[in-house]
Specification:
The structure holds three protein chains of three kinds. In chain B, 36% of the residues lie in helices and 23% in strands. Chain B has a single domain, classed as P-loop containing nucleotide triphosphate hydrolases (Rossmann fold), CATH 3.40.50.300. Chain B is built from nine helices and ten strands. By secondary structure, chain B is an alpha/beta fold. In chain B, a hairpin with a 2-residue loop joins strand 9 and strand 10. In chain B, helix 5 packs parallel to helix 6. Chain C has a two-stranded antiparallel sheet. In chain C, helix 2 runs antiparallel to helix 10, helix 4 runs antiparallel to helix 10 and helix 8 packs across helix 10. Chain C is globular. Chain C starts with a helix and ends in an 8-residue tail after the last helix. Chains in contact: A-C, B-C.
């Protein structure tokens, strides 16, 4: 179950990024999985290099986060590309982000090849704990804590800072914000970059527990969509709840019937879409 | 039996009462205007009359059938159609195609998957006929989005008329149209209605010239209640009524543009 | 001008087996199959305005039906296989469609994506039934009852099968043409343009969307079965969401608001894919870039470029 929460924490990061971008810019970004994968691959490379250069093992998590944040630099140029179709039909937006997925897939292939990249067991440097009969790496707890604090941080950002207020206002009413003098271009660029950062950091953080593979981005997209659907489009709290549900579900399914792991997620997504298409917390219209 | 009968309709949105015991009876041959200040409940009433909203209590029956929740399709087949305040078109469809859609649906040809529409003489003749009644005959091949606003409005209303309903409900048919065009449009609508066999017209309208010029019956709504249901002359004579509904004194002959 | 171009293209395609090298002919086969699939998908997307990110489900369904019939049941008549594929598609599309058409836009896209991936997972995991990631073989079928046993695999494919597939494509095109030009087709376009107004003038929006969904599914499965014959294999990747994405890519490439857009898109995509794949291992990057350019600058696709008409047709 704790494994589920770990996965949920990572999933939350990505889903939060997705929610943020959707809430403000009304774009559902299929490429969020690609950012996740990029974070993972770069995380592996960065930590491997850092450890080789003499970094003390316990600091590897800092390198991971730094790698994730550094990747956020691809945010502005990608946003610039997406900006060209903001006002077009959503089908085109989906297709453009799909094009980005294809391109990023090959970028990863080009830089890192097709074999999975792993970080080995450096994360065990934090030790392990026995909780309720199972052994849990402390690292996982660290990530869960990180996920939780980022969630709180996002909440604070959105409710207590000027930037956050602007973001929420724009999400509610774009025209009004524009009329009130908000610089849309900058807001969009920042929001998008923040969204990217959440994805890349999430990907980097998950690395110690899994391997960076060429499928991970694509697998994540569907999971992230499931989270967004369950939690509702445009809601940060929904992202948290949805991530938790999906994470736990997946862990539960793997424990009970390993075959249906991926299947379970889709069944849940479908069930939610059917029963409550607006999700549990949605504010945005369908 | 009256065509359209509303009995003691009450509509609550939470605790807010939008309609408070409205009763109305529409017969064939009538042109009824529903007037009232903003917030009086006119649009709510129209939505209830057309079954879009189910009343909290009371009933609306069209030809004896309860309309609540029927949906525009079934309602159209029963014989009632509606046009909306905001102009709504099929942007990429031509005028001809736009008019063909309601005709096709009326004739129940919509499920014909393999019949060639182009060869359906009867439908296209009717399209041409309807277009002519609305002054759109020379624009049949133009995509709807290229039409000027007034023509779009006519097309929008024409597509409701093309359902050949017995009763048509128009929500502000001359809104968004310049004053000089309003009468032209009303003449067109009334003429088309007569030629297409429409038996009763109900309109929600703000322009008092139009209301007095064309209705034979006026229903005045105020705060969810029917304040008056009478002939234009009777309404015009009631100064206090006019004041409540229109907010100013209206003497016949004043402010007519033609 | 469009007519002569079309006529020339038809002539070229008919004469190809006599003049073109076998390699290119075998390339045309998936193009024909995808043409059929895309005709169906465009009824859903171009005509009705519903973007499905899970249509590959039906393509895979068709392929696996072919595999199940030939390998599993020993049924080799292609006509029977195609009919079974159509039937299987209808069977699956009815409940799926009833569910999915209650939602629109993003929700429709996500729901179809989820179902597509659900099918993929099912194909992948339940290997005792579906062969898992290895898939199931599709044996060479009988065309109109004839085995052509004396022909080698390639000769069979570029000879009798080529013309069979082409004929099937022609039939599919004609059928879809009739559908699009029918009163039903007009209602679909009205639904695309303005669903609320369509409902207001008496069109059963949900029901017609459902019909379009099922028709698209049937075309998808027939195309899928046809696709599996040259490759000889039905494998789970056929249902993967990126395959669905590629289908839409092809539509966009050809031009989704032209009737023949799907055919042009299928052909160009296949030829382009072949060319690019032979030039670089990073063909996905190139394709992603092409798609991005098309979406941003040429959303009406190739036929949209060639045809100066400002409005949309069927």
């Amino acid at each position: 179950m704790l494994g589920g929460t770990f996965h949920a924490a990572v999933l939350f990061l990505v889903a939060a990024g997705l929610q943020l971008v959707f809430g403000v810019q009304r774009i559902l970004n299929l490429a969020c999985g690609s950012f996740y994968a990029l974070g993972a691959y770069l995380g592996v490379s960065a930590v491997t290099w850092a450890l080789g250069a003499g970094l003390p093992a316990p600091l590897f998590v800092v390198v991971l986060i730094a790698a994730g944040l550094a990747l956020a630099a691809i945010g502005p140029p990608v946003e610039r590309i997406l900006r060209t179709i903001y006002d077009r039909d959503e089908s085109f937006q989906l297709l453009l982000t799909f094009a980005l997925v294809l391109m990023f897939e090959d970028v990863i292939r080009f830089v890192w090849g097709t074999a999975p990249h792993q970080l080995g067991s450096v994360y065990l440097v934090y030790g392990q704990l026995r909780i309720g009969g199972s052994t849990v790496p402390v690292y996982n707890l660290v990530v869960i804590a990180a996920g939780g604090s980022i969630a709180l941080g996002m909440g604070w950002l959105l409710t207590r800072t000027r930037f956050g207020r602007i973001v929420r206002a724009t999400a509610e009413n774009r025209e009004m914000s524009e009329a009130l003098g908000v610089d849309m271009t900058r807001v969009y660029r920042r929001v998008f970059t923040l969204g990217v950062a959440l994805g890349t950091v999430g990907g980097a953080l998950v690395i110690p527990a899994t391997a960076a593979t060429s499928e991970m981005g694509i697998e994540l997209i569907v999971e992230a969509f499931a989270v967004v659907v369950i939690g509702g489009l445009g809601s940060m709290r929904g992202a948290a709840a949805g991530a938790l549900i999906v994470g736990l579900l997946k862990a539960g399914a793997i424990a009970v019937w390993p075959e249906v792991e991926m299947l379970a997620v889709y069944v849940v997504v479908i069930a939610v879409l059917v029963l409550r298409p607006a999700g549990l917390f949605a504010r945005a219209a369908a | 039996m009256s065509l359209l009968q509303a009995r003691d309709v009450r509509m609550f949105y939470g605790t807010f009462c939008a309609l408070d015991g409205v009763s109305l009876s529409i017969e064939a041959g009538q042109f009824v205007s529903i007037i009232g200040p903003n917030g009086a409940g006119k649009t709510t009433l129209v939505n209830v009359l057309t079954g879009l909203l189910a009343p909290t209590s009371g009933s609306v029956r069209f030809k004896g059938v309860d309309v609540a929740g029927l949906g525009p399709g079934r309602l159209a087949r029963l014989g009632m159609a509606r046009s909306f305040q905001l102009v709504s078109v099929f942007p990429a469809l031509t005028v001809g195609e736009t008019l063909a859609v309601p005709i096709v649906s009326r004739r129940r040809h919509g499920a014909r998957l393999f019949a060639a529409l182009a060869g359906d003489r009867a439908t296209w003749d009717e399209v041409a006929e309807t277009a002519a009644l609305f002054g759109l005959a020379d624009k049949l091949a133009r995509p709807a989005r290229t039409l000027p606003q007034g023509d779009k409005k006519l097309l929008d209303v024409a597509s409701a008329f093309a359902l050949r309903p017995e009763v048509i409900l128009m929500d502000e048919p001359t809104s968004g149209v310049s004053t000089s065009d309003k009468h032209a449009i009303m003449e067109t609508l009334v003429g088309a209605a007569a030629r297409m066999g429409i038996q009763a017209i109900i309109q929600v309208e703000h322009d008092m010239d139009i209301v007095f010029g064309y209705s034979d019956r006026i229903v005045a709504l105020h705060q969810g209640r029917v304040l008056a249901d009478a002939t234009p002359d009777a309404v015009r004579a009631d100064e206090r009524l006019i004041d409540t509904v229109v907010g100013r004194s209206y003497s016949s002959g004043a402010g007519r543009p033609w | 001008m469009a007519r002569t171009a079309g006529g020339l293209a038809a002539l070229a395609v008919l004469a190809a087996p006599w003049v073109a090298p076998p390699y290119h002919l075998t390339l045309l086969l998936p193009a024909f199959a995808y043409g059929i699939v895309l005709l169906g998908l465009n009824l859903l997307f171009g005509t009705t305005g519903l973007l499905s990110f899970g249509h590959a489900l039906f393509v895979a369904l068709g392929a696996y039906t072919a595999a199940a019939l030939t390998t599993g049941l020993g049924v080799l008549h292609l006509e029977a296989i195609l009919a079974a594929a159509a039937g299987a598609a209808a069977l699956v599309a009815v409940p799926l469609g009833l569910l999915c058409v209650r939602y629109v836009k993003i929700y429709f896209g996500m729901l179809t994506l989820a179902f597509g991936m659900l099918f993929y997972s099912f194909l992948y995991k339940f290997y005792t039934l579906t062969g898992g990631d290895e898939g199931i073989r599709v044996l060479r079928p009988l065309l109109l009852g004839r085995a052509f046993g004396d022909l080698g695999k390639v000769e069979f494919l570029i000879g009798p099968f080529y013309y069979y597939a082409l004929a099937l494509l022609a039939v599919a095109t004609l059928v879809m043409w009739r559908v699009v030009r029918s009163p039903f087709g007009l209602c679909l376009r009205a639904i695309r343009e303005n669903p609320d107004k369509a409902a207001a003038v008496g069109v059963s929006v949900r029901r017609y969307r459902f019909y379009a969904f099922v028709i698209a599914a049937v075309f998808g499965a027939v195309g899928g079965a046809l696709l599996a014959v040259p490759t000889g294999l039905a494998d789970p990747l056929l249902a993967y969401w990126t395959h669905s994405g590629n289908l839409v890519f092809m539509l966009l490439l050809g031009g989704f608001d032209h009737f023949l857009g799907p055919l042009v898109g299928a052909l160009v995509f296949i030829l382009l894919q072949d060319t690019v794949m032979s030039l670089t291992a990073y063909w996905r990057f190139v394709f992603g870039a092409i798609l991005a350019v098309v979406v941003i600058f040429f959303p009406r696709g190739l036929l949209g470029l060639l045809d100066p008409r400002a409005g949309r047709s069927a």
